[in-house]
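We emphasize that the prediction below concerns an isolated chain of 251 residues; any contacts that depend on oligomerization or on bound cofactors are therefore not represented. The input was used exactly as deposited, without trimming of termini.
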Amino acid sequence: MNNKPNNTRELLRRALASQVELGVNEVIIRRNSRHTAKSDGQNAIQSVTVGELFPDLNTELLGRAEYDSLDSHNRAICNCLKCPLGSTRTKFVYGVGNPNASLVFIGEGPGKTEDEIGEPFVGQAGKLLDKILEAIKLDRTQVYIANMVKCRPPNNREPLPEEMEACYPYLMEQLRLIKPKLICALGRVAAQGLLKTNSSLGKLRGHWHQFKGMEVLVTYHPAALLRFPSYKKETWEDMKKLRARYDELVK
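Result of the prediction step, given as a token string:
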């Protein structure tokens, strides 16, 4: 069975979804089918809304440049198909935690357990992150946790640059709504994607980075600590630095 029309429609849907996010909600289509009536030798032209073409797109929310809450933003983007990860995910993984957090942790993307549950950092790496938070006298109710991409990359591979780029505006809107003072980037991929740099993790760790009025500290991803326990000592130094700065800014 030839599924090309369905693929074409899906590509069109993704393209229009991206346009809606930019505020476009009306398109001009030219019908040139032999079954379509023509006038004066010209193809029939029709103006339709994106919602008429794809009723499942939440155009009312997507068309807004900014949102008034994390919940409204999540509802607007949770059916996103801007990149191929949208068609392979089980659940959209938006983020979790305090919507007014002073500290946001950002990883690279959901894993298998996160994809099944729809919440970031709930697998083995997430359990270790909880222990790290506990060690610096914090918990998930006090911070916010998100990822560079909202959908699981197949086989837990690193998200591709174009996939992170597609999700980047979503993360920026989350940060605008939360207004944190501090960000902790977990791992090389998250740090490079957030800061738009190709610098190595070794060069990014150990000092503060400025990002859109927020301070960013880079450390190892908890999954790396599970594979290489020797990194825990350096991570603990990073966490002490993070907690000290948190106390300075929050208290």
